[in-house]
Amino acid sequence: MGTFKAIRIDKADKGTTAALTQFDEAELMEGDVTVAVEWSTLNYKDGLAVTGKAPVVRRFPMIAGIDFAGTVEQSSHPAWKTGDKVVCNGWGMGETHLGAYAEKARVKGDWLVRLPDGISTREAMAIGTAGYTAMLSVLALEKHGLTPKSGPIVVTGAAGGVGSVASAVLSKLGYHVIASTGRMSEADYLKGLGAAEVIDRAELAGPAKPLAKERWAGGVDSVGSTTLANLLSMTKYGGAIAACGLAAGMDLPSSVAPFILRGVCLLGIDSVMCPIEQRKLAWNRLASDLDKGKLSDITHEIGLDQVIGAGAEILAGKVRGRIVVKIL
């Protein structure tokens, strides 16, 4: 056994510290599959972890990073063999289990999803947890019964990772997408992804009315707080909002009015502990329903040594689209 490069988070007198360093392979946690990590990505939660802005990490030392794509190096799990291309996200990686910002990862084989045909490991991380979460949100809206004929779909935080992928997928599926953003300078970018309309997030700010004018049949919300409350108050009868993020906060200053007077549903989206069959469905749908050209347009690449700085950028709302992290 030897050492490998990794972003290690340690507990400090005040908060935590994060640094790119050498990690001893003997310190890897238990698991029946060892993966040579080729690509990872930067998500909002990763930004919180590497900057220490929120107590994401719950064991120390920790290797940061909540998702990876790579090649199986060793396996004692019956489903996986050396050379298999896999993707993994959630399951507590980067929080309670050593994560993805490293040249090696050891995980449970039951956590892995086989890379769909037609998606490279780099493309898988261009999608990443953000894109996979966006797809889970789309699947939830479809399960609720929404179709393009139901009416417009609003996407909040539209210039971010979840929002960018959600906008691209929904538009390809034929939905009229209303993209909400705090960066109206990104309007052309969002229209390039397929948004039919771009609105300023200020329209969803301020205290929410119990019921406001009906504007959309559904939505994908990665913002939470007052934004989500306003979305619910403006959702058409029988519509639904898929809630998958909390960029603006964990609170929900709403009322029961949308639920009991318009039959609106709030659909909770959890990407971390999502059952494996739903994960497989989401990744296979991404392979077919996400335009590769648009994915390329919203993606830029950084090295492992740039992750900590980029983590601060994503928390400041300065990151557009998706960031892939080259590991090997």
Automatic annotation (TrEMBL):
Enoyl reductase (ER) domain: residues covered: 15-325
Protein name, UniProt field: NADPH:quinone dehydrogenase
UniProt-listed Pfam families: ADH_N, ADH_zinc_N
PANTHER family in the cross-refs: ACRYLYL-COA REDUCTASE ACUI-RELATED, SHORT-CHAIN DEHYDROGENASE/REDUCTASE
Domain of life: Bacteria
InterPro entries recorded: Acrylyl-CoA_reductase_AcuI (IPR014188), ADH-like_C (IPR013149), ADH-like_N (IPR013154), ER (IPR020843), GroES-like_sf (IPR011032), NAD(P)-bd_dom_sf (IPR036291), Zn-ADH-like_protein (IPR051397)
One GO MF term: acryloyl-CoA reductase (NADPH) activity
Matching CDD domains: MDR_yhdh (cd08288)
